[in-house]
Amino acid sequence: MTKRSELILVGVASIFGLLLLGVSYLGLPYDQTGLPTALSPIGLVWLSFAAALGGLARLARPWTCCLALAAVVPATVILRIAADVTIDPTRHNLWPFEIGLSLGVGLIDVIPAFWVARALRALWQALRANGR
Description:
This protein is mostly helical and 132 residues long. The protein has helices at residues 3-26, 41-57, 62-70, 72-87, 95-129. The mean pLDDT is 86.
């Protein structure tokens, strides 16, 4: 797979994940935006699924896939911070911690799904090679 098509596939999956996470997270009232519980489970499951698909089908290189999909979560939080700060500049005075926490959530969501899928693919190929 070429680098360009790899970036297109990961980009489309990331944009779809941003929409799934962003629609629910950006619509919450300010007092209900505690991380990580305010993030949409559907969006996080989509990111895990996209990472697992990337691991199974080898659609992208490991770090390209994992980092691009994990970056969707902080991108959603950054959009929320930007929207809230335009309304009231005193909100989100700890925004670097919010971004760091959301990056951790994204990495914890994406990396295990990718590598478990990659291990299952290797196991399946080994069993198929042994004739089972």
